[in-house]
Amino acid sequence: MAERLTAEARRQALGGIPGWTDIQGRDAIGKTFVFKDFNEAFGFMTRAALVAEKMDHHPEWRNVYKTVEVMLSTHDAGGVTRLDIELATAMNAIAKVTSS
Amino acid sequence: MAERLTAEARRQALGGIPGWTDIQGRDAIGKTFVFKDFNEAFGFMTRAALVAEKMDHHPEWRNVYKTVEVMLSTHDAGGVTRLDIELATAMNAIAKVTSS
């Protein structure tokens, strides 16, 4: 099972994934992605969903038209693990190629 | 442009779409869909997204694993219109065939 990252490991990991920050009041990381329109936003979500399902590690996310707010945490570990960093990294890569 | 439904028209419309209720504090309607797993939940979202895009009327929604919370409102009209009722009706139909 993935273990909670230490504060230092987490700080370092966040440094490598632009836009992701600690979420206040929760042991989680988050990012708000803003796309051109709903087509791009949901395209991003679809690609991210396939990655998440394959990892068996799923996001908590909210979509309003062109905006996707993502929150990642590992329930079993009670905090942020390497799984969250991996999914966040994948999401950044997907957003990069999704945005026109 | 779609116009805000009267209180009576809205009450009647909600009677025809099981599970949808007024959202407290907002001029909107909402429903929480619970599926078997993420595959079903995101399958539902994907089908609903296609309908929403075709209608050019989009939901505000939040997904956590097998749960999808949906909030519908028509921004231009400042409240609930027939567009929201139509999308809610379509979502109920999609959820029915998506759930195993």
TrEMBL record, chains A, B:
<dbReference type="Pfam" id="PF01329">
    <property type="entry name" value="Pterin_4a"/>
</dbReference>
<comment type="similarity">
    <text>Belongs to the pterin-4-alpha-carbinolamine dehydratase family.</text>
</comment>
<dbReference type="InterPro" id="IPR036428">
    <property type="entry name" value="PCD_sf"/>
</dbReference>
<keyword id="KW-0456">Lyase</keyword>
<dbReference type="InterPro" id="IPR001533">
    <property type="entry name" value="Pterin_deHydtase"/>
</dbReference>
<protein>
    <recommendedName>
        <fullName>Putative pterin-4-alpha-carbinolamine dehydratase</fullName>
        <ecNumber>4.2.1.96</ecNumber>
    </recommendedName>
</protein>
<dbReference type="GO" id="GO:0008124">
    <property type="term" value="F:4-alpha-hydroxytetrahydrobiopterin dehydratase activity"/>
</dbReference>
